[in-house]
Structures are given as C-alpha cells and as structure tokens.
C-alpha cells in the first residue's frame, strides 16, 4: 500500500502522483549514452559519483543489472591514481569523495577483488590512501593533499574503510572525539567545531558514529527535535532553519532520523507526496523541487528518501551507508 494513497484524497491532484518506476529506470540508463551532449561534459567532475548514484538508484528500483557490469568496473579502475585513490574521471586527481564512490560501486557490483587483480596495489593501497588523509593530531580527515577539512571526509573514510574491512588503519577513537567537538547546543552538527548546524553534516557525523558503534554519544531527543523541525508546510525537508526544502534532504535528514530511531517524528506521507511532486513523470528522474530540471543526484537521493519511508516498489536502503541493504548485509554480515 502506498504511503500517499488513502481515503479522503481528491483524485488527480499533484499529491496523488504515482512513482514512475520504469521512467526513472530509462532516465538513468540513458545517462550513459549521452556523451555527445553538453550536460555530460559539464558534469565530468562528478562522473564517478554519478555512476554510484545511478547504480544505487537502479538497485532501489529493482533493476540491479541496469548498468553494464564490466563497463562500470572498467570505468572505476580507469579512475585510480598511483597513490591508490580515485579521481572523478580518468586523469583527474584523487580525492576521498571519489574514492568512496569507487569503493561503493565495487562493493555493490561484488567486484572488490578486481582491485587485487587489476587495480594499482589492491585494496590495502586504497585503504592506505584514505588513512593517509587523517590528521594524527585532531583525528579529522582531509579530502585530498590540499588539506581542506570537512566532516564529510571523515564519514567517507569510515564508510569506505569499513566496507573494505580496513577500519583498523585509522584512529577511530580520535575521529569520534573530533565528531563530538562538531556537536552544537541545538543538537545538530557542523562542518567543523563551532560551525553552524547543517543537515548534511548531521548525516555525516551520525553516520560516522554509527559505523564506530558510538551512537550512544548522541543526545537523540535533542537531535531528533532539530531534525524534525526541518519539515516545512508542504511536507518537504530543508537543511537549515529558514531555507527552502530540497528533495535530497529527505535523505540527509531522513537517514539521520532513521539512525537514531526517530524517523516517525516527521510526517512520512506528506514527505513522500512532496518527493513525488519532484519527479518528471514524462522523461523520468527527480529534481530538487517541483518543476526544476532533473539530475541523477536528486534522483538517487529522492528514491533513497522514499526507501526510508518504505514506499511501495522501492527496495530497502541502508541508512548508514546509503547502499542497498541487501549489499551491506552481505558485506558487513550485519
Ligand atoms: Zn539538493
């Protein structure tokens, strides 16, 4: 039963949109064949992330084989650099965010052993690239050799290393205490100690604590209160007070709530209806807001949000890893 259907609703209103599963599958599969279009080149810096978003969305839509497996593996391996990390596309510098996507794609395709066979140094080389980005003093992580610090990188490191079973390469306790320093009095977390709370950073901090097995450090009522206040009148979620809603925040906020068992603190059926209004029912894909241009990033995160809500026809997602639950169950044996 769909979360947005039910008695007492007027038919043919926008909120009664159905999830257009086949259209979304076609939209994602076509992304790979649009190499002659400007959009493709404008997004080259996001290419490896794009494969992860598209592949995960296809899993949630029940089409795990929607992308050609060998091509995807070959593309991932072609993005690896000598230092073990991965760039956005072949020839691009390695960065932790692309390295995490590379690991997530290989794990999803059950192809981590390809790193040993054809990668530059096997999975330990990937792990040592990531571990080398940890600041030994503070426990935080840089994104690359240029040194920018962000709790996104710390979460990404924990995500990829735990999937590779290499979390012992880093100082988990120090990283955990760094995350605690990013907690604010409103219950949320910022990009660094003292920075304003933001739902995206909340997700990364809560996710890192979940992987470290330290969710006990969170004041769940206080954080759940801040997160549930992100729901606006039309049912959508924003990232900070006074901001507009955005489909991708159904994930950042929703997954954070799910990890602390407070997802029921937002109105799920209103949220699902707001997400369905962001889909393009003709061409497929989701946008950040109704009527805007669709993209694979928002398509992935809107579907992930619907998955958290157990929306009919959408497969189960792991709120910690943002991967299909069937995959993390197998890899992490949880
Ligand atoms: Zn967004």
Number of strands: 2
> Whole-number radius of gyration?
19 Å
Strand content: under 5%
Q: H/E element string?
A: HHHHHHHHHHHHHHEEH
Q: Which segments are poorly predicted (pLDDT under 50) over 5 or more consecutive residues?
A: 1-15
- Helical/strand content category: mainly alpha
Portion of residues within helices: 40-55%
Mean pLDDT: 92
Instruction: Give the strand order of the largest sheet, numbering strands 1, 2, ... along the chain.
Output: 1-2
Tell me the overall shape: globular
The number of helical runs is: 15
Major pleated sheet = 2 strands, antiparallel
Can you list the ligands bound to this structure?
A: zinc ion
Separation, N- and C-terminal Cα atoms? 28 Å
Summarize the structure.
The chain is mostly helical and 334 residues long. Helix content is 46%, strand content 1%. Strands 1-2 form a two-stranded antiparallel ribbon.
Structure description:
This protein is an all-alpha fold and 334 residues long. The protein has helices spanning 21-31, 38-42, 47-60, 69-78, 96-108, 113-118, 122-131, 151-163, 172-181, 199-211, 220-228, 249-259, 268-276, 296-308, 325-332, and strands at residues 317-318, 323-324. The two termini are 28 Å apart. The chain has a two-stranded antiparallel sheet with strand order 1-2. β1 and β2 (323-324) form a beta hairpin. Residues 246, 248, 288, 298 line the site of zinc ion.
